[in-house]
Amino acid sequence: MKYGIALFPSKKLQDLVNSYRKRYDPHYALVSPHVTLKSTFDAEEGDLEQITKELRQTAKTSKPLHLEIKKVSSFSPVNNVIYLKVEPTNEMQELHERLHTGALSSEPEYAFVPHITIGQNLSDDEHSDVLGSIKMLDIHHEEVIDRFHLLYQLDNGSWTVHETFLLGKESE
C-alpha cells in the first residue's frame, strides 16, 4: 500500500489554496492542501506497527512547527508546479530528516523544499500566465502546526488519514 506523511494547514489557508487548486491542480479532488514531509512510499500492513511506533516517538520529541508563507513560487524549469513557499525552519528540516530514518529509512527523491502546491501539470504558457497573475497577490500567512499525519492512498487515487501524531505530546 502507498503511504505519505504530511502537515495540513488551517482551514483558512486550505480554502485560499483550494480556490486556485480547483482550476490549476488535477490532484485537487485527491488530497487536501498540505506540506509533504515524506513523499509516497510503499509499506506492507505488517510494517505499520513499527512505522507508527517510530512516528509516535518522533512526534513526542518534536515541537510544534511555525508555518510562514510570504510568497508564491515555482519549480520551473524543472517542472511546471506553482506553490506557496513555506519559509524553511530548522525544526521542519529536522522533522523531515527524522522521517527518513529507521523503519522509514530512504533517500528523499528531491531536496526538501517545504511548500503547498497551487497548480501542477500546466503547459508552459499556462504556467507563465498563472504564475504571473498569482505572484501579484500579497500573501502573508503565519500559524503554528501541532500535528502531522500518516496518509494512505485509496484505490481511486485519493488520500486519507491513517493516523495523526501530535507534536510534543504522547499519542494514545
SSE inventory with pairings:
Layout: E1 2-7, H1 11-24, E2 35-42, H2 48-60, E3 65-74, E4 82-86, H3 90-98, E5 115-119, H4 124-134, E6 141-145, E7 147-153, E8 159-166
Antiparallel strand pairs: 1-2, 1-7, 3-4, 3-6, 4-5, 7-8
Protein architecture, described:
The mean pLDDT is 92. Strands 2-1-7-8 form a 4-stranded antiparallel β-sheet. Strands 5-4-3-6 form a 4-stranded antiparallel β-sheet. Helices cover 27% and strands 31% of the residues. The chain has 172 residues and is an alpha+beta fold. The longest helix is centred in the first third of the chain and has 14 residues, at 11-24. The chain contains 4 helices and 8 strands, in the order E-H-E-H-E-E-H-E-H-E-E-E.
Short synopsis of the structure:
This protein has 172 residues and is an alpha+beta fold. It has helices at 11-24, 48-60, 90-98, 124-134, and strands at residues 2-7, 35-42, 65-74, 82-86, 115-119, 141-145, 147-153, 159-166.
